[in-house]
Amino acid sequence: MVTVIAAIAKNYALGKDNDLIWHLPADLKRFKKVTTGHHILMGRNTFESIGKPLPNRTTIIITRNNNYFKDGCLIANSIKDAIEMASSDDEIYIIGGAQIYKQTLENNLADAIDLTIVHHEFDADVFFPEIDLKIWKEISRIDFKADEKNKYDYSFVRFEKI
Q1: Are 58 and 40 in contact (CB under 8 A)?
Q2: b/e per residue, 107-123, with b = 16+ CB within 10 A?
Q3: Residue 147's pLDDT is what?
Q4: Over the Cα atoms of the chain, what is R_g?
Q5: Is the pLDDT of residue 88 over 90?
Q6: Pairing relation of β-strands 73-76 and 58-62?
Q7: What domains, with CATH codes, occur in the chain?
Q8: Any residues with CB less than 8 A from the CB of 156 and at least 6 apart, and which?
Q9: Closest CA to 130 of 91, 92, 100, 102
Q10: Contact, 34 vs 94, CB < 8 A?
Q11: How confident is the model at residue 20 (pLDDT cuts 50, 70, 90)?
């Protein structure tokens, strides 16, 4: 199972200046719970914005630079190569960034999309691709109201192929 996992705003915003725009502890906690013990695949810019391999996960960085190296990470030159490298894992997560999400969805490489949707619009310079509802069906949604730790209303939404 290859799952695209992302936190996006109502206007599909992902980030600005190679960083997240909002801070939702509930989303970070859920991301950690869901991805721990699995392979996480990401582009080089996303890895560099995180700065290090995330604990208890196998990090695969996708880059066209054949000389790129990061201690504790695997390197792939394409999304397809990264998925192949992680094929022993029953749950593979594509965690970004925007170009990796776009290529994954355009090339029909994902089985599911797992989103945290922040119910707010943000100024951004990178956006998640629009979800084609002819291909994807929403199968679950849990809505949450803002609270003392999470500034915005948000939903955990899962899509699977029709």
Answers
A1: yes
A2: eebbebbbbbbbebebe
A3: 98
A4: 15
A5: yes
A6: parallel
A7: 2-153 (3.40.430.10)
A8: 30, 114, 115, 116, 140, 141, 142, 144
A9: 102
A10: no
A11: confident
Describe the strand order of the beta sheet including 154-161 as a list of residue ranges.
73-76, 58-62, 39-43, 92-96, 2-9, 112-118, 154-161, 136-144
Task: Enumerate residues 6+ apart whose C-beta is below 8 A from 128.
Answer: 6, 8, 12, 13, 14, 98, 101, 115
Measured between alpha carbons, how far is 157 from 136 in angstroms, rounded to an integer?
12
Residue type, 130: E
Residue with tokens 């394409």: 78
Check: pTM over 0.70? Answer yes or no: yes
Cis peptide preceding 15, ω within 30 of 0: no
Residue closest to 2 by CA, chosen among 61, 72, 79, 76: 79
pLDDT digits (tens, 9 = 90+) for 112-159: 999 999 999 999 999 999 999 999 999 999 999 999 999 999 999 999
